[in-house]
Structures are given as structure tokens and as C-alpha cells.
Amino acid sequence: MPCLTVVLTGRDLTLDEVVRVARRGERVELAGDAVERMRATRVIVEAALERGDTVYGFTTGVGAKKNATVAAADIGEHNRLLILNHRVGQGPTLPPDVVRAALLRLSNNLATGAPGVRPELVEALLAALNNGKAPEVRSLGSIGMSDLSANADMAHGALGDFVLAGAEAIALLNNNAVSTGHMALALTDALRLLDTLAVVAGLSLEGFAANLTILDPEVARLRPYPGLGAALAGVRAALEGSYLWNAGAARNLQDPLCFRCVPQVLGAGRDAVGYALSQLAIELNTHQSNPMAVAGEDPRIISVGNFDVLPVAAAVDLVRITLAHVLTSSSERTVKLLQRPLSGLPEGLAVEYGIAHDGLAEFGIAVQSIVSEARLLAQPVSFELSSATQAEGIEDRATSAPLGARRLAEQADLGARVAAIELLVAAQAVDLRRELPLGRGTGEAHGRLRELVPALKAGDAVPQDLEPVVALVRDGLG
Residue 329's domain spans which residues? Predict the structure, then answer.
């Protein structure tokens, strides 16, 4: 397969392109029209520098030092120290794919032309990206009103000996490239998890011998949420041809809510992710820096607040809240399949052979533990402000966008484990119930699982390593 190239224009970067560059190593090049746009605004910036205009971060200090003047002869040293003095990040480093997504987002921000940097700076960033470079970027220390400390790590690591010109250090720092790049990957993982859970939930419905009236198309027609319609269609597709569609296959008139509300809960998750993706699609192509250079009939440089990413930070909060519901429902299905009074199957789905054997029962405890952690990650963070006194009271806003993105990534990662356990338990329930055929999608998922983990037989110990199953779930079953 030929290696594709993403052409960066500053205007039409897509989520798919972010994923391809971050995780598949696709090359990136700067579009010709972006170069022209950057050169046009660079003329404005250089003229302001030549005149000695007072421009925030260009010829002045930053934060509480905004009124301190930087002499023309000191601009190079100002650039150097601005990057180094913001390298205050702490803790573990971000994964390489997140850093690559951030480098791409930063380059696209600069390619809008509004930050007023030279095209050569973007070319240097893209050279690092195309060479497979992923600088070490520490994950803690930014509050989301620009990812200052993370951006400083990224710029320092990616650019090496590249010499910055006037106004370029502030452009590298004053943006949310790290948090929005991280959000792009985390939302991709969250959506794949929802697709996978539609199949896994379908297998649980078969293992429980549940009532499929919940998937009647009228459910979505009379409640026209887009996510509900998509989720209901996804579960129906997974169960195409299943024995459960046969008259009399269902054991109950009504099943527990974790089974009965599968399309509604998955649908709410899809709606939340869809909303966040619509916000992110805009944010990926916006100008995030301060100041902003404006070309045209009235060329000027203005101070702005475009680094406030509340539209996406709040949307990601919503995604985590709905995912907490999704994962709780998944764990409840798992636990109920393991309990004889509810499933009608042997306790723990064990194959009895004369001695006490609790089968997969302990996975019920494991999944509830994991879901507890996932729920704690759902706490909204976009309104969190630790102090309004920073920079003499000037910096009195926060979105906690890096924290929100990181928590979503962690929650989606935990979600893959929750789904893997539900898949394992649902497959055992199906094997014990011995009703065929399975659905088109659920049958395929069952077969792929059994290639990794055989059915639990009399006297078998439970699977000791579910990592291959977790990897299967992460790759997607939908």
C-alpha cells in the first residue's frame, strides 16, 4: 500500500488525518497556499518588530511581565528563555502517538497564518514529525489556557538547534495543540469502544436469552436521537440471523435494565462523542494563539483569547459522563450473566464436575473494580480553577483541557478491559446455553475470542491473561 501524504493547509485537517499521522506514521507536507498566507502575515509581524511596536510576547514579557519591554537586540534571548522557562512540566511523559498528534495540530495552527511565524518554522516541525520524532513531553503542569509547559517540552525537543525569529516562541507556546491532539485520539478510541460494545452487548443478549423487542425499529423512530438510531441499528446488525429473533426464544417479558436499555445507553454515548467530534472538527482548524496577525486591507496585530478551548473541554467532560453509564451497564450485564437466579445458567458459568468450582464468578468482582475507577474519571474538570491569582490576577481562567483529555484516554483504556471481560463471560454463557445460530456479528466475535481463549471446561482454571482479548477489543469488533 503506498504511503499517503497529509497536506497541511491550516483549514481542513480531519480527525482521520490526525489518527493516520499519529498512529500510522503518514508523512505531512505544507500546502503552497498556507506558505503564501504565512508569508503575508509574517510581513506584518516583521514590520511591527522593525518599528518597535509594543506587542504582547513579541516585544514584551508575558503574564505579569506584560508591561516589560524587550529590546530588539534581546529578542533572540527572549525567545530562548521563553521556551526554557516554561519547561516546568512534571510526571510521566505522554505516549508518542499523542505527541505526534500534538505536533500535527501545532503545525496546522501555525499554518493558519494568524500566529505570524515563518513557513520555515513549520517545515522544521514537520521534518521532526516525518522523521518519526516524538519528543518527551511531560503530562502534568498545564491548566488548558494554552498547554504552556507541555508545548515548551514539545518545541524544545522537536526543534533542536533551530533558531527562532522574533514572535515565534510565543506562537509555539500559546496554543492548545497537546490537549486537542490528545482529545482527537481519545475520542477515536471512545467511538471504537462504543462500536465494539454494540457487538459485545449483542452477545450478552444471546447469552442471557433476552427479549429483543427492545430493538424494534419503532423504538428509534419515536425517539429520534441520532445516537439511539445508530446504536439500535448496530446491535440489530450484530444479531442478524440470531436464534433470539425466533418466537419463544426470550426467557422474560422484560429483562433487567442493563439489557433492556442497551440501545438507549450506547446511543447516549454515541451522541456525546458525536457532539465532541463536531466541536473538535472546528477546533482542529482554528487559530489558537495570542497575539493574532491579520492580513488584508487593514493589516494589524491584536490581542485575543483564542486559546480558551472550553467548547471542546466541556464536550469531552460530557463524553466521560456518558461513558461511565455505558461501562456501568456493561459490568451489570457481566455480573447478571454470572448469577444463576438471573441467567438461569450455572453459577459463575462453571461446568460442574463434582467439586466446588465458581467458574468465571471472580471476573464479576474484577469488572466492578475497573468500572469504579472508570466512573471516578467521569468527574467534570473543565470548570476547575485552582487559583485566580496567577500572573497578578490576569490569568483567572482555566479549562483543564489536558486533564480532561488524559482522563478520557484513561477511561477508554479501562473501557476496553470492561468490554473484554463482558465478551469473555457472554461467550461462556452462549456456550452453556447451546442455542444456535448466533448472529452474524456476535458469531464472528465469539469465534475470534475462541481463537484466543477456549471455552471453560470441567476442571479448567479461569484464563490467567486477558491481554490478548483486551487487544482484540481495542482493535475493534464493530
Answer: 184-475
Residues 325, 429 within the same domain: yes
Number of domains in the chain: 2
d(Cα 237, Cα 216) in Å, to the nearest integer? Answer: 12
The Cα–Cα gap between 167 and 174 comes to 11
- C-alpha R_g of the chain: 26
Compute φ and ψ for 461, nearest 5 degrees.
Answer: -80, 155
Distances (CA, A) of 468 to 132, 383, 473: 27, 38, 9
273-303 per-position pLDDT tens digit: 999 999 999 999 999 989 999 998 999 999 9
Q: Which of 126, 69, 119, 76 is nearest to 100 (CA)?
A: 126
Domain boundary among 118, 149, 175: 175
Domain match, 213 and 93 both: no
- CA neighbor of 173 nearest in space, from 54, 79, 282: 79
Same domain assignment for residues 168 and 195: no
Q: What pTM did the predictor assign? A: 0.95
Q: Could you tell me the CA-to-CA distances from 31 to 35, 38, 100, 197 in Å, in that order? A: 7, 11, 19, 39
Tens-digit pLDDT profile for residues 83-107: 999 999 999 999 999 999 999 999 9
Among the candidates 158, 175, 192, a domain finishes at 175
Q: Which CATH number do you get for residue 221?
A: 1.20.200.10
